[in-house]
Amino acid sequence: MTLSELQAIYDLPFFALLKRAHEVHEANFPEGKIQLCTLLSIKTGGCSEDCAYCAQSARYKTELESHVLLEREEVMLHARAAKDSGSTRFCMGAAWRGVRGGTERFEQVLDIVRDVASLNMEVCVTLGELGPAEAQQLREAGVTAYNHNLDTSPEHYPNIVTSHTYEDRLRTIRNVQDAGISVCCGGILGISETITDRLRLLEVISNFNPAPESVPINSLMPMPGTPLAENPQVEPLDIIRMIACARIAVPTAKVRLSAGRTRLSDETQTLCFYAGANSIFYGEKLLTTDNPEAANDRALLTKLGLQTLEPDTSHAAPLVDLTQPASPAIAACC
Ligand code: SAM
Ligand code: DTB
Ligand code: SF4
Questions:
Q1: What is the pTM (predicted TM-score) of this model?
Q2: Which of 281, 282, 290 has most ligand 2 atoms within 8 Å of its beta carbon, as the pocket-test mutant?
């Protein structure tokens, strides 16, 4: 989609936007189920990067306690508990700039991935920058999806991160796609961006080939000590609009209503589900920040008559549109 197409969609009257997004949602996800995913931070804090929203950056004096890479047994305890609670996807995050093959820590991550993959859940990891060989090794170990957000527009990105570039992010995404791993790529609202930045992000993501398997939409959880600690809360109606635009822009992707749900009412979340969100992170913690209580989420889904998704054990590789060039092509969007 182009920016002007997205702008026209964004500018629709609220109910017209909601109606259109819901129609797209019903056409692509006729069962209307919600996927529950559980996150675990397997290596916390002390990150070399300077992402202005992130408490895990070593550049800022935050209240976060750092932790070395967890042992595989400990990760498995969390993964089994996640499966027992109804999550069908286990997502592991590490606060690193990236990983390199042949290092002890990468070998440890591969062992962890093999263990979790044996539980027959979707296995997602987010480890920062990857080369083609690392992506291939992760795929062989059992990773089904890789989360690597572009977060905002290429124009606003350098105001938020200076230690790596948008092109670096695109290169990793390309490597993940080439290895046949599904891409989970989205953004974060509330980082001093404009509406155009939000739509530019969707423009870039909507032109991926293969399309991303999922698009997480995070709202800033302001972290004391980070440069964005005092940023105002995103307007709930703006979050719903963004979810609706993401649903229309990337119709086949799961749209994940991600960080920031503790600050959203049940009614706002309900409208997000109507607008096309079909996944949430489930459990009292995201990576380092708070998430709604699992019991509250279950109660809300029950009240709405929304069913949760069963495990998908096919782990199909992403579908490429062979009539279009593969993308992202590095620097094509910037
Ligand atoms: N280090 C990895 C990377 O940079 O890709 C993964 C971890 S990072 C926590 C994954 C995503 O979480 C970020 O891209 C951002 O969208 C989101 N995130 C991080 N801190 C956040 C915060 N304080 N509030 C909301 N979302 C946040
Ligand atoms: C994503 O876009 N959101 C999740 C997942 N991908 C890894 C992470 C949200 C993290 C929020 C901040 C924290 O808990 O540290
Ligand atoms: Fe590091 Fe990722 Fe946080 Fe950036 S978002 S500081 S890369 S953990």
A1: 0.96
A2: 281
